[in-house]
UniProtKB/TrEMBL annotation:
Pfam families linked to this entry: HHH_5, MutS_V
Coiled-coil segments: none
DNA mismatch repair proteins mutS family domain sequence ranges: 409-593
Protein name: Helix-hairpin-helix domain-containing protein
Species of the source: Halorubrum rutilum
GO molecular function: ATP binding; DNA binding
SMART domains, sorted: MUTSac, MUTSd
């Protein structure tokens, strides 16, 4: 496969990836969703993420039918990635996409829920130990040694079963053997280094004799690079003849390198042309001799490391658990893979635990939530229950009858007060549908979520011109009429054209949604202007209830089903009257109070315990 066959990779990007990684490694990075590799190769992180999302979830990306849907999707993944234990786990989270296969959704839900239970079951000390191990793993940039040590920490914390069974299959004794062997290696081991004799960089401290030989070689090479300085030094003094210069050179070199004089003498030339030739040839040949000794010792130490790690491979093979990784060492490779997967699952578990997410029930049709919360709102929020389509939450004993969403309606028209949370409810439903489609828990006490081929979320626009109307219709209608299951979440059509025509358009959209077998929630202030809706549609309302003592709008965010919500302008006018510091401006707002109902305004101000200026 060519790199340019992947979405988003043109000739220039392909050339950059090949130059930095090579074709095979670049393809491997794309197929394994390795964001870091693409970023290190010079791609912007956002571009790398988009490429990998398409490469690994092309069908799922079609679910994101509008820019606003994609915005919620991006925000959800950014929020989840903020709970990641490692940089690579964060990258893996950012490239999650909706899953087209329902079995894959169930499988991921199984893993994430089990991982959350395991995480919450740990004691505080074990959690800290696991976090510290992953911090060290990240600092070491995922080295083999760090992976093995992290796997040991996971086992010691008890994260070795269920979704972490791959960690449990790694025997502690073999992991410790691997850690000991890898501690003698600098960096990660090349996959060919065990069986095929590939290079192993041996760390300092792994072998005392090797360290001694390296020190002597380094000293000899340093002298060889400054041969004329050595010549000047040995000439300094009264040397009687060339033989005395040779002896002085041997003594000085032996002294500064730690090599015995006999060895230095053995490499000295017998036919030097002059003093300079003698000194430079002696140093050059000594450095070569010592390099050969270092290479011989390195080969012996590397062979020992190969035997130790290779021994682990042999033991694993005897147990019938070989992984076919061409000698890298099954225990090491499996530890690397197990730790990467554990970091990913534990990161999602922490996200679910910190936001109290629950497993949704996957259904064929409909979306229903009980006490759902918007993840993007700070502070304490009022949960809401809502549904469109067929569901079973209406009969749930945990839902008060007044708050129980009706079942069977395909479309709802949501009405109510300004700042009443209607758009927030649409965003919440969109987030629940997206999280469930990715196999992730959702922010609710309970939820039933169908499978959607497209999610159309469209926020209101402040502009009022024909261009916005046209672009909006082109955004929401095509996905609605495509084959498959569509969820429509559309906010305030009246913001993009005059109210009378907006009501006509909304009637048409509601009817079309029902006819296409889609589900929809449409927010509007024009419910009273709508023609009779299809039997499968209903009208719901959110109500403002007054002002708080600090003049904030007090809203019951739980929609009332089958009821038109009121915009209650008297509450807004009441707040303007209360906040007006200029006597003339206040008089103007009081005049408006008479227009919207002076008695209602005065009652609101009284309920808010406000007292104005008596003058």
């Amino acid at each position: 496969m060519r790199l340019e066959d992947y979405w988003g990779i043109g000739p220039k990007t392909s050339e950059r990836l090949v130059s930095a990684l090579g074709t095979s490694r670049a393809i491997e990075a794309i197929e394994s969703a390795d964001v870091r590799a693409l970023v290190d190769a010079g791609l912007h992180r956002g571009r790398a993420t988009r490429i990998l999302r398409r490469a690994n979830g092309e069908a799922g990306m079609d679910v994101l039918a509008t820019g606003d849907t994609r915005s919620v999707y991006d925000d959800l993944l950014s929020l989840a990635a903020g709970h990641a234990l490692t940089a690579h786990a964060a990258d893996r989270i950012r490239v999650l996409t909706p899953l087209a296969d329902r079995e894959a959704v169930e499988e991921r839900l199984d893993d994430v829920v089990a991982a959350r239970e395991a995480w919450e079951g740990l004691g505080e000390a074990d959690r800290e130990r696991v976090v510290e191990a992953f911090d060290a793993y990240d600092d070491a940039e995922g080295s083999d040694l760090a992976a093995v040590e992290t796997a040991l920490a996971l086992r010691e914390a008890g994260l070795d079963h269920g979704p972490f069974a791959a960690v449990g299959e790694l025997e502690s004794e073999r992991l410790r053997d691997a850690a000991d062997a890898l501690a003698d290696v600098r960096g990660s081991i090349d996959p060919t280094a065990i069986d095929d004799g590939g290079e192993i960089e041996i760390a300092r401290g792994a072998d005392a004799e090797l360290d001694r030989l390296r020190d002597r070689r380094d000293a000899a090479e340093e002298l060889a690079n400054s041969a004329f300085d050595v010549l000047d030094a040995v000439r300094d003094g009264s040397l009687r003849d060339f033989e005395a210069l040779e002896a002085a050179t041997v003594d000085r070199v032996a002294s500064e390198t730690g090599v015995d004089p006999a060895t230095v003498r053995s490499v000295a030339p017998d036919d030097a042309l002059d003093a300079a030739d003698f000194v430079s040839a002696t140093l050059r040949d000594l450095a070569a001799e010592l390099e050969a000794e270092v290479a011989e010792r390195e080969a012996a130490v590397a062979a020992d490391i190969r035997e130790r790690i290779g021994g682990m491979q042999a033991k694993t093979d005897e147990a019938g658990e070989a992984d076919g990784n061409n000698g890298r060492g099954s225990a090491v490779t499996r530890a690397v893979n197990a730790v990467s997967d554990a970091a990913f699952l534990l990161s999602l578990a922490r996200f679910a635990a910190d936001h109290d997410l629950v497993r949704p029930t996957l259904v064929d049709d409909g979306i229903a939530v009980r006490n759902a919360r918007n993840l993007f709102l700070a502070g304490e929020v009022q949960p809401v229950s809502y549904a469109v389509g067929t569901h079973s939450l209406a009969g749930d004993a945990g839902v008060a009858s007044a708050d129980a969403p009706p079942t069977g309606d395909r479309v709802s028209v949501l009405t109510g007060a300004n700042s009443g949370g209607k758009t927030t409810l649409l965003e919440t439903i969109c987030a629940v549908a997206l999280l469930a489609s990715m196999g992730l828990p959702v922010p609710a006490e309970a939820a039933e979520v169908g499978a959607f081929d497209r999610i159309v979320f469209h926020r209101r626009h402040a502009s009022f011109n024909a261009g916005v109307l046209e672009s909006t219709l082109k955004s929401v209608v095509p996905p609605l009429v495509e084959d498959g299951r569509t969820l429509m979440l559309v906010d305030e059509f009246e913001a993009i054209t005059e109210p009378g025509r907006a009501a006509d358009l909304l009637n048409g959209l509601v009817t079309l949604t029902v006819e296409r077998g889609a589900l929809g929630v449409y927010v509007t202030h024009l419910a009273e202007d709508l023609s009779p809706l299809p039997d499968a549609a209903r009208i719901d309302g959110i109500f403002a209830e007054g002002l708080t003592s600090d003049l904030a709008l007090r809203v019951d965010y739980q929609p009332r089903f089958g009821t038109i919500g009121k915009s209650t302008p008297e509450f807004i006018v009441s707040r303007l009257v209360a906040n007006a510091s200029d006597r003339g401006v206040r008089a103007g707002f009081e005049h408006l109070a008479g227009a919207v109902g002076e008695e209602a305004v005065q009652r609101t101000l009284s309920d808010a315990e406000w007292t104005g200026d008596d003058e």
